[in-house]
Amino acid sequence: MENELITQIPQQIDLIRQKIPSHVRLIAVSKQISASAIRIAYNCGIRDFAENRLQEAIAKQEQLQDLSDICWHFIGHIQTKKARKVLEHFSWIHSLDSLKLAKKLNNLAAELSVSPQILLQVKILPDPNKYGWEVPELLAALPELNSCDYLNIQGLMAILPLGLSPEQTLSAFTETRKVAETIQQQQWSNLAMNELSMGMSGDYLLAIKAGATMVRLGTIIFGQRAM
Ligand SMILES: *Cc1c(COP(=O)(O)O)cnc(C)c1O
Fold first, then answer.
1. In order of start, what are the domains of the chain with their CATH numbers?
2. Predicted TM-score (pTM) of this structure
């Protein structure tokens, strides 16, 4: 089954590239996808890969050590006890979802002398199944986030609840952009809001319409994952 899908990867990447503007960073979500499929996407020019499970990601990174210019993105929820390993293995973290985690990452980044690129995961619409800051909570946390000197906070990440109409989807992504603009207008010394990581296989075109600078695409590149 996987072999069949693997042959589609280059075509799918071509199709996606035709649809997205060149300033939008195409991140291939390789969770549950084999190292050999990642290699195929790499050979099509993809350099950004995202994973949501630490152990699985580390195993694949070991198999792909020769591809030293891959930029790895972490997109899953991070338990504080795993924060150190995430920093050691990923340059971008899209899923910073609490002040506790921010402080933990900041301390560890100082200790490890790394300066991770960070996105704040926001929950624009209520969703009991998802982590993320609610907007008022995020706005209240900004002074403390701004003082996390070792974190390069670059913008926001959003995942929408399932089952929205295209109109609701576009409006939720637009809302996310507006939150980023609100934060930007406050001119925090240490918080950039230039990146918006939003859009998955089913909604990336709407996300781009609303201002996404990064899209995270799994299924549409690699095919359906086993559940
Ligand atoms: C799995 C996942 C994706 C990719 O989803 P697809 O629908 O397969 O494109 C994007 N973002 C996050 C946070 C994910 O967990």
1. 2-222 (3.20.20.10)
2. 0.96
